[in-house]
Amino acid sequence: MDQLSEEIRQESPWTMMFADDIVICSESREQVEEDLERWRFALERRGMKVSRSKTEYMCVNEREGSGTVRLQGEEVKKVQKFKYLGSTVQSNGECGKEVKKRVQAGVAMGPRQASFLVQPVLAVFVLIISVCCLNPDDPNVCSHWESYAVTVQESYAHPFDQIYYTRCTDILNWFKCTRHRISYKTAYRRGVRTMYRRRSQCCPGYFESGDLCVPLCTEECAHGRCVSPDTCQCEPGWGGLDCSSGCESGYWGPHCSNRCQCQNGALCNPITGACVCTDGYQGWRCEDPCEPGYYGKGCQLQCQCLNGATCHHETGECICAPGYMGAVSPIY
Asked: Pfam families given for it (predicted)?
């Protein structure tokens, strides 16, 4: 098996071989599928068979959206644990109970030896050490092809001196003469082959956070969030490149992009845009003076004028009817 797999086998721990089982470790689902296909092609062309039913894979530290592993379009069975070389390996990384059980069993068995049944069909266990959950369809995920070198055993035509005999007139050698010719035979030598694999990574301006590619803002968004590279989305009432500046008078909302619609000197709330009316005015835009008989802030104060006099809607000052004079101080 070592000689058959020499051209595709990687160093430990990425490839581990035990009897008729093979463990393939990889950092991504895509790389697992590529490695599986390479092993299948290399082994089956030499007359061996990769068991589809016994081939399993397990993810460690799996996140949502990790997808499935396929071999020639057929989905490989996923397991949460599998027993290998007498120990149970779990997807959550725990194995303390299994180790304890094996130690106890070994003590109970004493000097006796346990026999193991070796299956005649090759089984491939795939262990994904750290599943990369980046979605290749995510517009923030970019992919590229990278090259890597693998050591392979390649065949070539090796020349050698072949001796053969022909009939001739040499009576001393019983009419048999020795001849030489250059012939070729198949030999093997180590070589280096360049392979290619696709790698997924976050596009420029984004960085990987868990299973997502999130945008990177050079300046921290003080009152907002980063929505694209170096672009902050400010909370209402804040503006500026990093959302650290409050809205100027007359503007409100996210990035202070909305112009206030308030009238009669009223101010607007920088967050909601609601008008804060000056004394003597009311309405959504502070466009209406107080109703007759009322004045002041919010038009909540009642006029104190007598004899049919009216009061100013802002100050409450009495405006006497004809034939009257005097003033009544407004009540605040």
From this structure: EGF_laminin (PF00053), EGF_PEAR1L (PF23301), EMI (PF07546), RVT_1 (PF00078)
- Burial degree of 36 (CB within 10 A; 0-12, 13-18, 19+): buried
Longest dimension (CA), the chain: 168
CA-to-CA distance for 325 and 327, rounded, in angstroms?
7
Phi, psi of 229, rounded to the nearest 5 degrees: -50, 120
* CA–CA gap between residue 199 and residue 31 (Å, rounded): 8
Are 13 and 52 within 8 A, CB to CB?
A: no
Q: What is the mean pLDDT of residues 258-282?
A: 91
Which tokens in the block code for residue 199? Answer: 């790698």
Which tokens hold the place of 40?
A: 């299948």
Residue type for 193, please?
R
Confidence (pTM):
0.38
Contacts of 10 (CB under 8 A, 6+ apart): 150
Per-residue pLDDT, 205:
93
Q: If we measure between CA atoms, which residue out of 188, 194, 94 comes closest to residue 150?
A: 194
For 33, the 3-state DSSP assignment is helix
Average pLDDT score over the chain: 79
Burial class (CB in 10 A: 0-12, 13-18, 19+), 329: exposed
